[in-house]
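Lecture notes, unit on protein representations.

Consider one protein chain, 312 amino acids long.
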Amino acid sequence: MEHQFTYRIEAQEAGQTIEYFLKRRGYSRQILIQLKKTPDGILRNGIWAYTRDRLEACDKLTIRLVEKMSSEQIEPVSLPFGVVYEDTDLLVVNKPAKMSIHPSMNHHNDTLANAVAAYALKKGETYPYRCINRLDRDTTGLLILAKHMLSAAILYEQMRERKIQRTYLALVKGKIASSGILDLPIGRKPGSTIERIIDYEHGERAVTHYTPIRTGDNWTLLKCILETGRTHQIRVHMSAIGHPLPGDFLYGPEDTEAERQLLHSFRLSFTHPITKEPMVFTEPLPEDMKAYMNSDSKGDYLYEISDDTREL
Protein backbone atom coordinates (compact mmCIF):
# COMPACT_ATOMS: atom_id res chain seq x y z
CA MET A 1 0.00 0.00 0.00
CA GLU A 2 1.30 3.47 -0.85
CA HIS A 3 0.75 6.82 0.83
CA GLN A 4 2.02 10.15 -0.48
CA PHE A 5 2.56 13.28 1.58
CA THR A 6 3.37 16.73 0.19
CA TYR A 7 4.82 19.67 2.13
CA ARG A 8 5.33 23.27 0.99
CA ILE A 9 8.34 24.78 2.75
CA GLU A 10 7.71 28.05 4.56
CA ALA A 11 10.27 30.86 4.87
CA GLN A 12 10.98 30.04 8.52
CA GLU A 13 11.80 26.45 7.56
CA ALA A 14 14.42 27.39 4.97
CA GLY A 15 17.87 26.04 5.81
CA GLN A 16 16.60 22.95 7.60
CA THR A 17 17.81 19.58 6.36
CA ILE A 18 15.17 17.27 4.99
CA GLU A 19 15.92 14.84 7.82
CA TYR A 20 15.39 17.51 10.48
CA PHE A 21 12.19 18.71 8.78
CA LEU A 22 10.72 15.20 8.63
CA LYS A 23 11.72 14.25 12.16
CA ARG A 24 9.85 17.29 13.45
CA ARG A 25 6.76 15.91 11.73
CA GLY A 26 6.98 12.53 13.40
CA TYR A 27 9.00 10.52 10.89
CA SER A 28 10.90 7.92 12.88
CA ARG A 29 14.41 6.70 12.21
CA GLN A 30 12.98 3.48 10.81
CA ILE A 31 10.78 5.37 8.34
CA LEU A 32 13.69 7.56 7.20
CA ILE A 33 15.81 4.46 6.55
CA GLN A 34 13.02 2.97 4.45
CA LEU A 35 12.52 6.20 2.51
CA LYS A 36 16.21 6.18 1.51
CA LYS A 37 15.72 2.70 0.05
CA THR A 38 12.45 3.54 -1.74
CA PRO A 39 12.67 4.71 -5.38
CA ASP A 40 11.44 8.32 -5.42
CA GLY A 41 10.87 8.04 -1.69
CA ILE A 42 11.97 11.66 -1.14
CA LEU A 43 11.45 14.20 -3.91
CA ARG A 44 12.40 17.86 -3.67
CA ASN A 45 10.68 19.81 -6.42
CA GLY A 46 10.20 16.57 -8.29
CA ILE A 47 13.87 15.52 -8.07
CA TRP A 48 15.21 12.71 -5.87
CA ALA A 49 16.88 14.18 -2.78
CA TYR A 50 19.16 13.18 0.10
CA THR A 51 17.99 13.58 3.69
CA ARG A 52 21.02 15.81 4.33
CA ASP A 53 19.96 18.29 1.61
CA ARG A 54 18.87 21.68 2.89
CA LEU A 55 15.48 23.08 2.06
CA GLU A 56 14.66 26.48 0.62
CA ALA A 57 11.54 28.58 0.94
CA CYS A 58 8.72 27.49 -1.41
CA ASP A 59 10.30 24.08 -2.03
CA LYS A 60 7.82 21.28 -2.62
CA LEU A 61 8.79 18.18 -0.67
CA THR A 62 7.03 14.96 -1.68
CA ILE A 63 7.28 11.82 0.43
CA ARG A 64 6.33 8.43 -1.01
CA LEU A 65 5.67 5.94 1.76
CA VAL A 66 5.41 2.38 0.44
CA GLU A 67 4.55 -0.51 2.74
CA LYS A 68 4.97 -3.93 1.19
CA MET A 69 4.46 -5.57 4.56
CA SER A 70 0.98 -6.64 5.61
CA SER A 71 -0.35 -8.85 8.37
CA GLU A 72 -0.35 -11.90 6.12
CA GLN A 73 0.06 -14.24 9.08
CA ILE A 74 -3.30 -13.06 10.43
CA GLU A 75 -6.19 -15.05 8.97
CA PRO A 76 -9.08 -12.84 7.80
CA VAL A 77 -12.24 -13.91 9.65
CA SER A 78 -15.51 -12.04 9.46
CA LEU A 79 -16.38 -11.19 13.08
CA PRO A 80 -18.61 -8.43 14.47
CA PHE A 81 -17.02 -5.21 15.72
CA GLY A 82 -17.96 -1.56 15.47
CA VAL A 83 -16.29 0.98 13.18
CA VAL A 84 -16.57 4.33 14.92
CA TYR A 85 -14.35 6.39 12.57
CA GLU A 86 -12.15 5.73 9.56
CA ASP A 87 -9.97 7.67 7.13
CA THR A 88 -6.83 6.90 5.11
CA ASP A 89 -4.62 7.21 8.20
CA LEU A 90 -6.41 5.52 11.07
CA LEU A 91 -9.34 3.46 12.25
CA VAL A 92 -11.22 3.84 15.55
CA VAL A 93 -13.19 0.75 16.52
CA ASN A 94 -15.51 -0.44 19.26
CA LYS A 95 -14.23 -3.81 20.49
CA PRO A 96 -16.83 -6.24 21.84
CA ALA A 97 -16.36 -8.37 24.95
CA LYS A 98 -14.71 -11.80 24.74
CA MET A 99 -12.47 -10.73 21.86
CA SER A 100 -8.67 -10.55 22.22
CA ILE A 101 -6.92 -7.87 20.21
CA HIS A 102 -4.08 -10.16 19.01
CA PRO A 103 -3.91 -13.85 18.05
CA SER A 104 -2.38 -16.10 20.69
CA MET A 105 -1.87 -19.78 21.40
CA ASN A 106 -5.52 -20.34 22.29
CA HIS A 107 -7.00 -17.70 19.99
CA HIS A 108 -5.79 -18.06 16.40
CA ASN A 109 -8.78 -16.80 14.44
CA ASP A 110 -11.28 -15.15 16.79
CA THR A 111 -9.50 -11.88 17.58
CA LEU A 112 -9.91 -8.25 16.60
CA ALA A 113 -6.88 -8.64 14.34
CA ASN A 114 -8.70 -11.35 12.38
CA ALA A 115 -11.82 -9.22 12.18
CA VAL A 116 -9.95 -6.13 10.96
CA ALA A 117 -8.05 -8.19 8.37
CA ALA A 118 -11.37 -9.42 6.94
CA TYR A 119 -12.82 -5.90 7.04
CA ALA A 120 -9.84 -4.46 5.14
CA LEU A 121 -9.88 -7.30 2.61
CA LYS A 122 -13.55 -6.67 1.87
CA LYS A 123 -12.66 -3.03 1.10
CA GLY A 124 -9.75 -4.08 -1.10
CA GLU A 125 -7.16 -2.71 1.33
CA THR A 126 -4.08 -4.23 2.95
CA TYR A 127 -2.14 -2.77 5.85
CA PRO A 128 -0.25 -4.11 8.86
CA TYR A 129 -2.31 -4.50 12.00
CA ARG A 130 -1.12 -1.81 14.42
CA CYS A 131 -3.15 -1.37 17.60
CA ILE A 132 -2.14 1.84 19.41
CA ASN A 133 -3.88 1.35 22.75
CA ARG A 134 -4.66 -2.02 24.31
CA LEU A 135 -7.71 -3.57 25.96
CA ASP A 136 -8.07 -6.83 27.84
CA ARG A 137 -10.07 -9.59 26.12
CA ASP A 138 -13.19 -8.96 28.22
CA THR A 139 -12.96 -5.16 28.25
CA THR A 140 -15.16 -3.41 25.70
CA GLY A 141 -14.85 -0.09 23.93
CA LEU A 142 -12.67 2.23 21.90
CA LEU A 143 -9.36 1.34 20.25
CA ILE A 144 -7.17 3.21 17.75
CA LEU A 145 -5.60 1.37 14.81
CA ALA A 146 -2.96 3.01 12.59
CA LYS A 147 -3.24 2.27 8.86
CA HIS A 148 0.35 3.14 7.91
CA MET A 149 3.75 3.48 9.54
CA LEU A 150 3.76 7.27 9.80
CA SER A 151 0.43 7.52 11.61
CA ALA A 152 1.58 4.64 13.82
CA ALA A 153 4.87 6.37 14.71
CA ILE A 154 3.12 9.62 15.59
CA LEU A 155 0.34 7.94 17.61
CA TYR A 156 2.81 5.74 19.50
CA GLU A 157 4.72 8.90 20.39
CA GLN A 158 1.50 10.50 21.63
CA MET A 159 0.98 7.45 23.84
CA ARG A 160 4.52 7.70 25.22
CA GLU A 161 4.01 11.39 25.94
CA ARG A 162 0.60 10.69 27.51
CA LYS A 163 -1.19 12.88 24.99
CA ILE A 164 -3.87 10.29 24.25
CA GLN A 165 -6.40 10.63 27.03
CA ARG A 166 -8.31 7.45 27.82
CA THR A 167 -11.47 7.53 29.89
CA TYR A 168 -13.01 4.28 31.14
CA LEU A 169 -16.28 3.46 32.81
CA ALA A 170 -15.93 0.78 35.46
CA LEU A 171 -18.56 -0.92 37.58
CA VAL A 172 -17.08 -1.81 40.96
CA LYS A 173 -18.44 -3.53 44.03
CA GLY A 174 -19.41 -1.41 47.00
CA LYS A 175 -20.14 2.28 47.30
CA ILE A 176 -17.61 5.01 46.55
CA ALA A 177 -18.92 8.46 47.41
CA SER A 178 -16.09 10.77 46.39
CA SER A 179 -13.42 11.22 43.74
CA GLY A 180 -9.84 10.16 44.28
CA ILE A 181 -6.44 9.40 42.80
CA LEU A 182 -4.72 6.04 43.13
CA ASP A 183 -0.93 6.22 42.82
CA LEU A 184 0.08 2.60 43.38
CA PRO A 185 2.94 0.84 41.54
CA ILE A 186 2.03 -2.27 39.58
CA GLY A 187 4.28 -5.24 38.82
CA ARG A 188 3.99 -8.79 37.56
CA LYS A 189 2.97 -11.38 40.16
CA PRO A 190 5.86 -13.82 40.70
CA GLY A 191 5.22 -17.08 38.87
CA SER A 192 2.45 -15.66 36.67
CA THR A 193 2.61 -14.36 33.12
CA ILE A 194 -0.81 -12.71 33.38
CA GLU A 195 -1.61 -11.54 36.90
CA ARG A 196 -0.39 -8.21 38.29
CA ILE A 197 -0.04 -6.99 41.86
CA ILE A 198 0.71 -3.81 43.79
CA ASP A 199 4.50 -3.97 44.09
CA TYR A 200 6.19 -1.10 45.93
CA GLU A 201 9.67 -2.54 45.42
CA HIS A 202 9.75 -3.56 41.75
CA GLY A 203 6.52 -2.22 40.26
CA GLU A 204 6.15 0.63 37.78
CA ARG A 205 4.28 3.77 38.74
CA ALA A 206 0.57 3.59 37.94
CA VAL A 207 -1.87 6.48 38.43
CA THR A 208 -5.65 6.27 38.10
CA HIS A 209 -8.04 9.21 38.59
CA TYR A 210 -11.59 8.13 39.45
CA THR A 211 -14.94 9.85 39.92
CA PRO A 212 -18.20 8.16 40.98
CA ILE A 213 -20.98 8.73 38.47
CA ARG A 214 -23.78 6.51 39.76
CA THR A 215 -24.29 4.27 42.76
CA GLY A 216 -26.57 1.31 43.45
CA ASP A 217 -27.29 -0.95 46.38
CA ASN A 218 -23.81 -2.49 46.35
CA TRP A 219 -22.05 -1.04 43.31
CA THR A 220 -20.63 2.18 41.92
CA LEU A 221 -20.17 3.29 38.33
CA LEU A 222 -16.83 5.09 38.13
CA LYS A 223 -15.31 7.29 35.49
CA CYS A 224 -11.61 6.43 35.43
CA ILE A 225 -8.93 8.44 33.63
CA LEU A 226 -5.54 6.79 33.23
CA GLU A 227 -2.44 8.88 33.72
CA THR A 228 -0.33 5.80 33.00
CA GLY A 229 -1.15 2.61 31.11
CA ARG A 230 -0.11 -0.49 33.04
CA THR A 231 -1.51 -3.93 32.34
CA HIS A 232 -4.83 -4.45 34.20
CA GLN A 233 -4.33 -1.06 35.87
CA ILE A 234 -7.94 -0.23 36.78
CA ARG A 235 -8.69 -3.81 37.80
CA VAL A 236 -5.63 -4.04 40.07
CA HIS A 237 -6.14 -0.60 41.59
CA MET A 238 -9.83 -1.10 42.35
CA SER A 239 -9.21 -4.51 43.87
CA ALA A 240 -6.41 -3.05 46.01
CA ILE A 241 -8.82 -0.60 47.69
CA GLY A 242 -11.50 -3.22 48.27
CA HIS A 243 -13.71 -2.47 45.25
CA PRO A 244 -13.08 -5.20 42.66
CA LEU A 245 -15.06 -5.31 39.43
CA PRO A 246 -17.95 -7.80 39.26
CA GLY A 247 -17.00 -10.72 37.06
CA ASP A 248 -13.26 -10.16 37.42
CA PHE A 249 -11.97 -13.72 37.93
CA LEU A 250 -8.37 -12.56 38.50
CA TYR A 251 -8.75 -9.77 41.00
CA GLY A 252 -12.10 -10.32 42.67
CA PRO A 253 -13.85 -13.12 44.56
CA GLU A 254 -15.56 -15.72 42.41
CA ASP A 255 -19.15 -14.78 41.64
CA THR A 256 -21.85 -15.20 39.02
CA GLU A 257 -22.95 -11.59 38.95
CA ALA A 258 -21.33 -10.91 35.58
CA GLU A 259 -19.76 -12.96 32.80
CA ARG A 260 -16.81 -10.58 32.47
CA GLN A 261 -15.16 -7.69 34.27
CA LEU A 262 -17.53 -4.76 33.71
CA LEU A 263 -15.03 -2.31 32.23
CA HIS A 264 -15.54 -0.15 29.14
CA SER A 265 -13.22 2.14 27.17
CA PHE A 266 -15.67 5.03 26.93
CA ARG A 267 -13.79 8.02 25.58
CA LEU A 268 -10.61 8.67 23.57
CA SER A 269 -9.16 12.07 22.77
CA PHE A 270 -6.00 12.67 20.75
CA THR A 271 -4.53 14.73 17.93
CA HIS A 272 -4.92 13.37 14.43
CA PRO A 273 -1.44 12.19 13.39
CA ILE A 274 -1.56 13.77 9.92
CA THR A 275 -4.13 16.60 9.90
CA LYS A 276 -3.31 17.65 13.50
CA GLU A 277 -7.01 18.16 14.21
CA PRO A 278 -8.31 17.33 17.71
CA MET A 279 -10.19 14.03 17.73
CA VAL A 280 -12.70 13.02 20.40
CA PHE A 281 -14.75 9.82 20.38
CA THR A 282 -17.20 8.33 22.87
CA GLU A 283 -18.92 4.96 22.90
CA PRO A 284 -21.97 4.42 25.17
CA LEU A 285 -22.09 1.69 27.80
CA PRO A 286 -22.62 -1.83 26.46
CA GLU A 287 -25.88 -3.58 27.24
CA ASP A 288 -24.52 -5.93 29.91
CA MET A 289 -23.30 -3.00 32.03
CA LYS A 290 -26.63 -1.22 31.62
CA ALA A 291 -28.47 -4.40 32.60
CA TYR A 292 -26.34 -4.81 35.73
CA MET A 293 -27.26 -1.31 36.89
CA ASN A 294 -30.91 -1.54 35.83
CA SER A 295 -31.35 -4.72 37.88
CA ASP A 296 -30.98 -2.56 40.99
CA SER A 297 -33.99 -0.30 41.46
CA LYS A 298 -32.02 1.71 44.01
CA GLY A 299 -29.59 3.06 41.42
CA ASP A 300 -29.09 6.78 41.94
CA TYR A 301 -26.92 9.46 40.32
CA LEU A 302 -24.43 11.06 42.68
CA TYR A 303 -23.47 14.03 40.55
CA GLU A 304 -24.78 15.88 37.54
CA ILE A 305 -23.50 13.95 34.53
CA SER A 306 -20.66 15.80 32.83
CA ASP A 307 -20.47 16.43 29.07
CA ASP A 308 -18.33 13.37 28.39
CA THR A 309 -20.80 10.99 30.05
CA ARG A 310 -24.08 12.36 28.72
CA GLU A 311 -24.47 9.37 26.41
CA LEU A 312 -25.11 7.07 29.42
